[in-house]
């Protein structure tokens, strides 16, 4: 049977032809399609200013810079995320302060956040793991009470909502990813949702080398910006994808429901929280019962591959990577994140899948895991 990857983008013919038109236009770097995409994203986010970038990672780093966060400052975040979440804090010279996750939602445990706040704390950076939103009401109540800013690592959140309000349409600074494995894609890319127009001049400088161009052809640089602009090619892909966001989200929720119905309870998998109203089901991630298995996670992944099914791992607890161990973190610091990081597997889930694909995954897991249960 055809190999079933854990994710695959859905690109329609209209989008492909639109990219061809951009290529033929001769304007392939940042230009009119970038502006069009930004306007469409702004409409999705309730009219807030939105600017696109080459990655959501760049969006988070620029957000930190916009808030003046740097050496000596602390940012509270979760250890259970793609390592970019912690890396951007280090890049600006600040220190990530990790808080363990809630074992049910797998998101940052807001009950523990206040205990982590110190006089050096400047911001909270929550992550919506697998597209399940962090409780925005509690998050912002904590931030307001302590005078902190919030940078939402909403990399996985496109199409998710909090109590009916789309993620990105409210809150402080919000960074969203359009990587190839996200719910909508630009192949690579992301955006930052800003608070108001007053933040745009500095953002524009930070996005592209700090350059300010004048009408007479002269230019100036007064801040050391980077290079994080998006191309028109990527923006045209994003425009086609954004039009299908509701369709994609509905299909993901349908497939997730079918996973819950198709996975054999005898396998002892710890399934994610069932939320079909707010989550966009960016990923479907059961936890393996490793204490009851005679095979490792790596062996499970390899055997599923032999069955023609791709399995991902999102994510190991980042504080156990060598870089973070060298900065003082160690095993046992965040038990829930470590346990989830050791056991999590990401099953195939993307809009082009059918219910039969979900059933195929369920049958393959039964074939691999049942004989390994002890």
Explain the overall architecture.
The protein is of the alpha/beta class. Helices cover 37% and strands 11% of the residues. It has 13 helices and 11 strands. The chain has helices at 13-25, 32-44, 56-66, 84-91, 110-116, 136-146, 200-207, 232-242, 245-262, 297-306, 322-326, 335-343, 355-369; strands spanning 50-53, 74-77, 95-98, 121-125, 149-153, 161-162, 165-166, 173-177, 190-193, 211-213, 219-221. The chain has a 7-stranded mixed beta sheet with strand order 1-9-8-5-4-2-3, with helices on both faces. α9 packs parallel to α13. It is globular, with a radius of gyration of 21 Å.
The proportion of residues in beta strands is 5-15%
What's the end-to-end separation, in Å? 30 Å
Mean pLDDT: 98
Give the structural class: alpha/beta
- What string gives the helices and strands in order? HHEHEHEHEHEEEEEHEEHHHHHH
Query: How much helicity do the residues have?
Result: 25-40%
Number of contiguous helices: 13
Strands ordered across the widest β-sheet: 1-9-8-5-4-2-3
Low-confidence stretches: none
Shape: globular
Descriptors:
alpha/beta, 374 residues, 11% strand, two-stranded antiparallel ribbon, single chain, 13 helices, globular
């Amino acid at each position: 049977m055809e190999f079933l990857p854990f994710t695959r983008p859905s690109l329609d013919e209209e989008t492909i032809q639109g990219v061809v038109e951009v290529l033929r236009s001769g304007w392939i770097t940042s230009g009119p399609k970038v502006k069009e995409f930004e306007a469409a994203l702004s409409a999705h986010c309730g009219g807030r200013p939105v600017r696109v970038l080459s990655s959501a990672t760049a969006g988070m780093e620029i957000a930190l810079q916009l808030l003046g966060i740097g050496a000596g400052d602390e940012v509270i975040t979760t250890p259970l995320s793609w390592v970019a979440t912690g890396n951007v804090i280090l890049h600006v010279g600040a220190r990530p302060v990790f808080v363990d996750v809630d074992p049910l939602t797998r998101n940052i445990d807001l009950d523990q956040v206040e205990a982590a706040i110190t006089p050096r704390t400047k911001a909270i950076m929550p992550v919506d793991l697998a597209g399940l939103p962090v409780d925005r009401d509690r998050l912002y109540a904590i931030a307001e009470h302590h005078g902190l800013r919030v940078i939402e690592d909403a990399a996985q959140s496109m199409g998710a909502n909090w109590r009916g309000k789309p993620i990105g349409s409210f809150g402080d600074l919000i960074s969203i990813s359009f990587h190839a494995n996200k719910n909508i894609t630009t192949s690579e890319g992301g955006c930052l949702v800003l608070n108001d127009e007053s933040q745009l001049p500095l953002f524009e400088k930070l996005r592209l080398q700090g350059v300010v161009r004048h009408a007479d052809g002269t230019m100036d640089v007064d801040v050391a910006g980077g290079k994080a602009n998006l191309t028109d090619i990527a923006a045209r892909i994003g425009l086609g994808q954004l039009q299908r966001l509701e369709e994609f989200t509905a299909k993901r929720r349908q497939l997730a429901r079918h996973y819950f119905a198709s996975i054999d309870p005898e396998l002892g998998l710890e399934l994610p929280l069932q939320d079909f109203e707010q989550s966009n089901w960016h990923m479907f991630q059961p936890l393996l019962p490793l204490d009851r298995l005679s095979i490792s996670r790596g062996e499970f992944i390899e055997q599923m591959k032999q069955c023609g099914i791709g399995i991902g791992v999102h994510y190991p607890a980042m504080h156990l990577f060598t870089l973070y161990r060298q900065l003082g973190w160690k095993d046992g610091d965040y038990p829930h994140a470590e346990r989830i990081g050791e056991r999590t597997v990401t099953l195939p889930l993307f809009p082009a899948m059918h219910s039969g694909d979900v059933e195929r995954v369920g049958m393959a897991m039964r074939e691999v895991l049942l004989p390994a249960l002890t």
